[in-house]
Each structure stands twice: as structure tokens, then as C-alpha cells.
Write a structure and sequence with these properties.
Order of helices and strands: HEHEHHEEHEHEH
CATH architecture: 3-Layer(aba) Sandwich
CATH class: Alpha Beta
Strand order of the largest sheet: 3-4-2-5-1-6
Helix content: 25-40%
Number of helices: 7
Radius of gyration: 15 Å
Structural class: alpha/beta
Shape: globular
CATH topology: Rossmann fold
CATH superfamily: P-loop containing nucleotide triphosphate hydrolases
Distance between the termini: 33 Å
Number of domains: 1
């Protein structure tokens, strides 16, 4: 099974047979502006400062900003390029941060053509993340209930949700 041609069904079967390359933590929530990137960046920094090799991945495919939360410029290659270029590997996209044990795979806040990726693209991303070797991988997800967001959130055992203490945010989190 080539990692470039893995389907959602293949990925579901693979999860039961292959140990993940790291502990993967997905941070999501139903509403924008509730602190998902802040939680993702803070958790990533904390794990790196504890001595764990950590990779933070910005999976907000239509409005990436995890690089900003980490005080870094937007790179020319990130997860969006990985989605569009099957020859790339996740390791090609690792960006150094201010913390020696923390690497970033940024998204692109200027590229909207991958915001709604199809099942094959989503499965390729999930498979690559699942196989990537590091201690922790922290996924910063987009807001809302798009297929990609829900898939990235639901396939992990460790999930964190972020919300504000106001009725619209609370209702959205409950629906999420």
C-alpha cells in the first residue's frame, strides 16, 4: 500500500495494525477565535520544554496562523504544499522554532485552494502524520464542522477542545 494512494478505508484498517509514530493530540473547536492556536502553541512549547521532540502542525487549511502564535514568519512550504505535491514528505516541511525540541509544519493563510480537500488527500495527510516519528504531534485544527476538520479531530484518541465562556461559543462546542 503506497502512502500516496491510501484511501480512508485503508487508513482505518491500518490504524489497528500499525503503531503510530508519536502521540498525536488534536486541538479543535466549533467556533473561530476561541483560542485553538493558542492552546496548540502553548501545549507544543510545554512538551518541547519538558524535553519531548514535538511537531506542531497547522491543519487550519483555509486560515493558518499557528506560525504567528509561535512568533515565526510564514514559510513558503507547509502542509498545503504537501497536499498539492505528492512527492513531498512531512520531513521536508519541518521548520525550526525558538525552542530546540519543537518543529513546526505551517499552513498557508494565503492559499485557499486546499481548504476543502477530498477524501484521498485527507487520507494521505492522516497517514503521513500517523507514520511520522517524533514524541508528540500537536494538530491545530480549523474551526467548524467541515469534513476535514471532523476527520482530523475524530481519528485521534487524544482530543482537546477550545471554547469561550459565552452562549454562542458553548453551543458551537457542544455541536462540535
Amino acid at each position: 500500500m503506497s502512502s500516496n494512494n491510501v484511501t480512508q478505508a485503508d487508513f482505518s484498517q491500518m490504524r489497528g495494525r500499525i503503531e503510530p509514530g508519536s502521540t498525536i493530540i488534536a486541538v479543535g473547536g466549533g467556533k473561530g477565535g476561541v483560542g485553538k492556536s493558542f492552546v496548540s502553541s502553548s501545549l507544543s512549547i510545554f512538551l518541547a520544554q519538558l524535553g519531548y521532540n514535538t511537531v506542531a502542525i497547522d491543519l487550519d487549511l483555509g486560515g493558518a496562523n499557528l506560525h504567528t502564535a509561535l512568533g515565526l514568519p510564514l514559510t513558503h512550504r507547509g502542509i498545503n504544499e504537501f497536499i498539492l505535491d505528492p512527492s513531498l514528505q512531512l520531513s521536508d516541511l519541518l521548520q525550526d522554532t525558538h525552542w530546540p525540541k519543537l518543529k513546526l509544519i505551517s499552513g498557508s493563510s494565503e492559499q485557499f485552494d486546499v481548504a476543502n480537500i477530498d477524501e484521498l488527500q485527507r487520507s494521505r495527510v492522516m497517514s503521513a502524520i500517523f507514520r511520522h516519528k517524533t514524541d508528540f504531534t500537536v494538530l491545530d485544527l480549523s474551526a467548524g464542522t467541515h469534513n476535514s476538520t471532523l476527520d482530523f479531530f475524530s481519528w485521534r484518541n487524544t482530543k482537546w477542545s477550545s471554547s469561550l465562556r459565552n452562549p454562542p461559543a458553548s453551543r458551537t462546542l457542544t455541536a462540535f
